[in-house]
Amino acid sequence: MFVPVCLLLAALLRLTWLQDMEYKEDERLGFELAQTIGRTTDWPLVGTMSGVGIVNPGLSLWIFVILARLTQAAHPMELARAVQMVNVLSVLALFYFVLRWLKGEDREPWLWSAAMLSVSPFSILFSRKIWEQDVIPPFLLLATIGFMNRASFLGAAVYGLFGALLGQVHMSGFLFSLGLVVWLAVFDRNNVNWQGWFAGSALGAIPLLPWVAFVLSQPGPSQGWGWGNILRLKFFRDWLEDTFALGLGYSLGPHFTAFLRFPSIGASPTYGVMLIHIGLWAAMIVFLAGSLWGTWTNKAIVPDPAPSTTLLRNATLWAMGALFTLSGFVVYRHYLNVVLPIEFLWLACLTLRYIPRPRAFLLTVWVLQLLLSVSFLSYIHQNCGAPHGDYGTAYRCQADAEVK
Q1: What is the pLDDT of residue 232?
Q2: pTM for this entry
């Protein structure tokens, strides 16, 4: 019964109040290019400029052109709806993969990961607009399925193919794929069909060649690099905050204080959202204390999951995290959207292993994140977005202003 509830909530949270979607410069440009590319303009070999001063690969644009053609989207909300449906179907596919293919110690942590993904505020935030980060999930899922079957030629080829394509949707995917390969080469190289991985990677790299040629012809990044980015360890901080949904200030900006007072009864704030945050902070402290103590004393409630799941979560956290940090580039919170399900897999694995009454703990975190997601969408709906924050003015209110 829990799985159908998660699927229903995943759909409702992603599809409700479509008109409240974010629609700023990036989203507007993405929609306009999706309408003109291949019609009034030629297909570009590369994408638009990224936040670190490097042009994105072409697939980051092509995916929206393909979505617009397939759905015949001629309006921003129609294209945003297509993105939302991609995310809903990705959650459904993740549950199917877990229930159909995973057995034993692997299944439960993956189910919890899918359940958290269904209701996570960050998963909801990054599933409702025309942005390349919002179309990452199907590529990540297929790369993960290939990874879990990497001993066979076909599995390794799928892993290599979609690992290469993932970075072309958003460049954070390159560091995810590279981190995974480095970790496998060190800890599991004998269980990988490297011929299949190489064949899939080579095939996936073909659309990347024009981008590589373009980047090599340009000067280095003009922004985003600095020693301070290494010292801040922002990847690991964002990982932890994302897992417990404690960073919505990223989207709301100066509106976050008002959000903590939400909802109101009449003119009186209830501070309901603040209470949710207190619960999530408490859960994070319990989780960290229990996991560190259990790891230190080697006292586990249940065995660790099968090697593939353990490798995936460790490679993503430590190898990808190290690559992100040591690169010296600024780590924006939305870069971690590429690993959001794996953050929850990490949470579930360690909770089931080290935290007393783990299922009650995980269910509590799930309920708190669900309440926070509902509160976030309600706040955005009531306040026309977050005009002074990253979210900006909701599309509905922009359209109303243009009419007036």
Answers
A1: 82
A2: 0.93
